[in-house]
Amino acid sequence: MVTNTHTTIHRNAHNLDQTFGALADSTRRAILVRLASGEATVGELAWPFEISRPAISKHLRVLENAGLVRRTVDGRISRCELDAAPMRDASEWVEFYRKYWEGQLDLLASYFNEKKKTTNEEKEK
Q: The domain spanning residue 55 has which CATH number?
């Protein structure tokens, strides 16, 4: 299973780069939070921010390129909705390395516990 996860992680490296790049900005994360409650127009997404509509559109393009947002155009109205699938891939990547580092920290703890035990035994002699 680790091999499959490892292969998937490397195969999706470009997608992960786009996802983490998109998530690196607080405005884009706020847009995703809003879209998690349902679709919204670009105007509705722009409303809470003190930035221009073109700036919001740039953020939306980054989110679209990462596959996190789908935009549909209905006349002059652009509607956006969340697509959380890329975040699932990012979560799997984080989980893979969380397990790795937990294992490494467990080994380190075992090493120090053994050293402490050996030191205590030497002191008792």
A: 1.10.10.10
